[in-house]
TrEMBL record:
InterPro entries: Cyt_B5-like_heme/steroid-bd, Cyt_B5-like_heme/steroid_sf, MAPR/NEUFC/NENF-like. Belongs to the cytochrome b5 family. MAPR subfamily. Residues 31-71 are annotated as: Disordered. This is Cytochrome b5. GO terms for molecular function: heme binding. It comes from the Eukaryota. Residues 74-170 form the Cytochrome b5 heme-binding domain. Pfam families: Cyt-b5.
Amino acid sequence: MTWLDTLTSTPVLIAGALGISAAVYAKRQSASPVTPAPVQSTSRTAQSTMEQKKDGSVMSPPAANLELPKDDPISVAELRQYDGTDPSKPIYVAIKGRVFDVSHKKEMYGKGTGYNVFAGKDASKGLGMSSLDPKDAVADYSGLNEAQMKTLDQWESFFEKRYNIVGKVVP
């Protein structure tokens, strides 16, 4: 049998066609990025493109019962009191100066949990960097690169759709 006979045999042709089909399918799947839709200030419960594409996601769905955002001034010192250590107080996380009440997710932000590093502070930089290092959980996000800024914006959008805004961080 010559190399041409081998190359054009039915098993080789079938394997080649399946391989090419699988490669094309994989490329198409990886080429369609999943990005959230822009935040709509008039509708805080709108579904983002990302959530529509991720049916069955482990992320909680947007809340349907959010209150109107508040802009009450909250000092950095006051914000620190809402870090999840006192069970009688709510848990707050600030992003870009806006303070979110995350109390109903104590399993995520409460004392001893993974995201507690962000509780009681403006954690913009750490969220943008996707970092759980306490030294990164700071308000100054001016050093973030473009990709990190996009991540921070996605976190902000995520929080806007799930948590009440209770105030604004003031110096």
